[in-house]
Design goal:
With 304 residues, the protein is mainly alpha-helical. It has helices spanning 3-30, 36-50, 52-58, 67-77, 79-88, 94-117, 124-146, 151-175, 179-201, 204-208, 211-240, 242-245, 252-263, 270-288, 294-303, and strands at residues 119-120, 292-293. The chain has one domain (3-303). Residues 289-304 have low confidence and may be disordered.
Amino acid sequence: MTRNTVLGIAAALAAALIGAGWQIASRHGVTTTLGPLDLAVLRYMLPALVLLPALRGVGLLPRGVAPSTLALLVAGGGLPFGLLALRGAQFAPAAHMGVFMAGCVPLFTALLGWALRGEVVRGRRWLGLALIAFAAVLTGWASLRSGHAQAWRGDLLFVLAAAAWSAYTLAFRASGLSPWQGAAVVNAWSALLLLPAIAWWGVPRLWAAPWPDLLLQAAWQGVMAGVLGLVAYSAAVQRLGAGRASLSGALVPLLSATGAALLLGEPFGLLTASAALAVALGIALCVQQPLVQHQQARSADGAH
C-alpha cells in the first residue's frame, strides 16, 4: 500500500467522523436555539475568513476552472447543500441524515457518471445500490411507524442534499484545485451568497442564543465541517478517486445513529440499525467494484 493510499484512507476516515459529528451537532442546533440560516452563517462565514490566505492564491474565479464546474462546486459543497441539509434536520432525526445523505451519494454518483461519462453499473454494484434503496425505504417506514409526521420532508431534503454532494464530488475532481483551495473557494462564494439572505431575513436567533450553544456550533459548523471536513473529504477524493473516497460514507449512518442515540436521546431500534447496516454494506459493494466506461463494457461484451 502506497503512502498516497494510506493518506487517502486516513482522510476518508476523518471525513466520516467529522461528517457524523456535524450531522448530530446540526440536529441539536436546529431543534434547540438556532435555525438553519443561523447555522449556515457559522458554517460558511467563519471558514471563509479562516481560509482567506488560501483564497488569495486562486481567487474567486480560479484559472482553468470552467464556470459550470465552479457552479457545481459551490452548489454541491456550499450554501445550497448546507441549507438543504440543515433545513432537513429540523424535520427528521440525525439517523436519517446518515442513511439518506451518505447512502444516496453512490446512487447519484452512478447516475451522474452514466449521464456525463457513459459509465455503466455492473456486477455487485447493482446489489449495493439495491441495498441502499432498501435502507431508504426501511427508514421511511420507520418514520411512519414512529409517528414523525414531518420526517418525510426532512428525508426528501436529505436526498436533494445527497444529489448536490455527488455533484460536488465529481466537480472537485475535475477542477484541478487542491483541497485547501477548493474549500476556500466554496466557502468564500457561500459567504457572499449568504449576504442577501441575511439582509432580507436576518439572524436574530444567532444573537440571542446562549454562548455555550454558539461555541459548540461555531466549532462544529465553522471549524470541523466548514474547514477540516471539506478539506479531508477533498483530500480523499484527490488521493483515492471519487468512488473509493465515498466509501467513507459507509461509516456515517452507524456513527450518526449511535451518536444521536447517546447524545440526543433519539431512538435506535432494530429498524434504524438495519437501515444503517444496509447502507454500510451497500456503499461497500458499490465502491468495491468501480464503474466501467461504456465503451470498455461494450468491448468486453463483444469479446464474449
